Amino acid sequence: MPSLDLDRLGEVRTNWTLDEARALNALPINDLLYHAQRVHRLAFDPNRVQVSTLLSVKTGACPEDCAYCPQSVRHDTGLERDEVLDVAAVVAAAEAARAGGATRFCMGAAYRSPKPKQLEQVKDMVRAVNALGLETCATLGMLSPGQARELKDAGLDYYNHNLDTSEAFYGEIITTRTYQDRLDTLGAVRDAGLKVCCGGILGMGESELDRVQLLHTLATLPAHPESVPINQLVQVKGTPLDGLPPLDPLDLVRTVATARLLMPRSYVRLSAGRTEMSDEVQALCFLAGANSIFYGERLLTTPNPGRNRDDELFARLGLTRETAADTTPAA
């Protein structure tokens, strides 16, 4: 392992070596948390958390074979297919999210890649949610450069497209699209001027090296994703990953801390799987540099802690929700 210049942590770099990333992740937990919290405070208020809400605007019947996903037509999970929500229903959900303290409203549709009519429907949603003063995010599968530009022109702020895991482990999880397909979509999104939301899922049977390789790939993109969601696998009966051993909570904490050190100005979001995390584990993740969560009862089709539960946790930890005026990291 290389020697690390720990005093330089906090600099924004896209030339990290994999050995450096592995060395950071392997630090003694006390040192790792210390440096992650120190770096976090260079760019962010340590006691503020950005809150997003995620709504499934089209559920089920996805042709992809992602092994974790209950929306795949290839898995018998009992999930009913729903048609695209109308704009009024999306606006009502966005208004409720805003009233609950969310500053970003994310819209997810189970597409491999949106067709022209589908993209027009999402663009109408984006315009309507923008009019409420919320940041907008969408996750619709793969995008062409032209589609990314259309969403940007409609006012979309963020586009989510996760890499999910390392390139080496990817084929164990998904076979219907390649890792390069995902990287190409990220490139199209970035070139269109959209902000990138990109992270992964832990607990799918990957190794520690796979987790570090995922973070290394994100941290060596031409620019760091503005938002990095760290998901813990939610096991769903009927999916191939149901029944896997649970993730070691300290592996989650280490991944969050390493993400904070590699991408010091990115929002690091505790995403799916929080219903399986104790308050103490979540507190350690906030200490490790997580500063964003999804707020609300559900994430697409899987459960999420209710708002009251999160409000109670925030009160216990002395955390406050970020407001719209606070959404730019410190200089």
Structure description:
- By secondary structure, this protein is α/β, with parallel strands linked by helices.
- Helices cover 37% and strands 15% of the residues.
- The chain contains eleven helices and twelve strands.
- The chain has helices spanning 18-25, 29-43, 87-99, 116-130, 145-154, 167-170, 179-191, 208-219, 249-262, 279-287, 307-317; strands spanning 48-58, 104-109, 135-139, 158-160, 195-197, 200-202, 227-232, 267-270, 292-294, 298-299, 302-303, 320-321.
- Strands 1, 2, 3, 4, 5, 6, 7, 8, 9 and 12 form a ten-stranded parallel sheet that branches. It has a two-stranded antiparallel sheet with strand order 10-11.
- The chain is globular, with a radius of gyration of 19 Å.
- The two termini are 32 Å apart.
What does the main sheet amount to? 10 strands, parallel
What general outline do the C-alpha atoms trace?
Answer: globular
Per DSSP, what share of the residues sits in E-state strands of 2 or more residues? 15-25%
- The SSE order reads HHEHEHEHEHHEEHEHEHEEEHE
Which segments are poorly predicted (pLDDT under 50) over 5 or more consecutive residues?
none
Mean pLDDT: 89
Category by helix and strand content: alpha/beta
Percent helix, as a range, is: 25-40%
**SS element count, helices:** 11
Total beta-strand segments: 12
N/C terminus separation: 32 Å
Radius of gyration of CA atoms, rounded to a whole number:
19 Å
How would you briefly describe this protein structure?
The chain is of the alpha/beta class. The chain is 37% helix and 15% strand.
